[in-house]
Design a protein that fits this description.
The chain is α/β, with parallel strands linked by helices. The chain contains 6 helices and 12 strands. Its EC number is 2.8.3.5.
């Protein structure tokens, strides 16, 4: 069967259900699965646990699922500057598992590698370590972190071939490659689908074995989260 689907809605057909765990790629506004997220909103599934570095920005990305009250819990590392996220968390409407960014990436990587737990110095002696086992290695305390896995990973790549081999473009190669390995089903939206044999095997970032469904993205906005400028100095 072909891995290529005709639309984002078709690529998600049959894989969404209430209470599921979804990994969503992206770092800030780079590498977000911006065509797939609106289809999750349209499907109306609820009580979602979403694993993502952040929850989008006003009107963009995962913010849409917060706005529609479809997210029950976020597992994230950066939650600042999202007022809707803040409001829902402070009101008790949204659960949050705050995870240091490097730890979040490693928990996802561990999930893909089949490693149930690992130890890290990050978070020792802080609220991050509360309720977690702590052990001493070579005289230093380390907190145990568990893997992260998901029912579905939605990711964004630059190019794919029909087998699902992926290439990412620059900063979009953030959480996406690890998430592709750590879910039961991985759906990827891409800017371009190229013929088989196009890629040099050494240039493939995610092997096709991890990819279940591919769709051409319908939204490819290159947004700037914060535009900072300065006046040009006179000659």
């Amino acid at each position: 069967m072909s891995k290529i689907y005709s639309s984002p809605a078709a690529a998600l057909d049959g894989v969404l259900f209430d209470g599921m765990t979804v990994m969503s790629g992206g770092f800030g506004l780079s590498g977000n699965p911006e065509s797939l997220i609106p289809e999750i909103r349209a499907a109306g599934v609820k009580d979602l646990t979403v694993i993502s570095n952040n929850a989008g920005a006003d009107g963009f990305g995962l913010w849409m699922l917060l706005k529609s009250r479809q997210v029950k819990k976020m597992i994230s590392s950066y939650v600042g500057e999202n007022k809707l996220f803040e409001e829902q968390y402070l009101s008790g409407e949204l659960e949050l598992e705050l995870t240091p960014q490097g730890t979040l990436a490693e928990r996802i990587r561990a999930g893909g590698a089949g490693i149930p737990a690992f130890y890290t110095r990050t978070g020792v002696g802080t609220v991050v370590a509360e309720g977690k086992p702590v052990e001493v290695f070579e005289g230093e305390e380390y907190v145990r972190e568990n893997w992260l896995r998901a029912d579905l990973a939605i990711i964004k790549a630059w190019r794919a071939d029909p087998e699902g081999n992926l290439m990412y473009r620059r900063t979009a190669r953030n959480f996406n490659p690890n998430m592709a390995t750590a879910a039961k089903v991985t759906v990827v939206e891409v800017e371009e689908i190229v013929p088989a044999g196009t890629f040099d095997p050494d240039c493939i970032h995610t092997p096709g074995i991890y990819v279940d469904r591919i769709v051409l993205s319908t939204i490819n906005e290159k947004r700037i989260e914060k535009l900072t400028v300065r006046e040009r100095e006179s000659a």
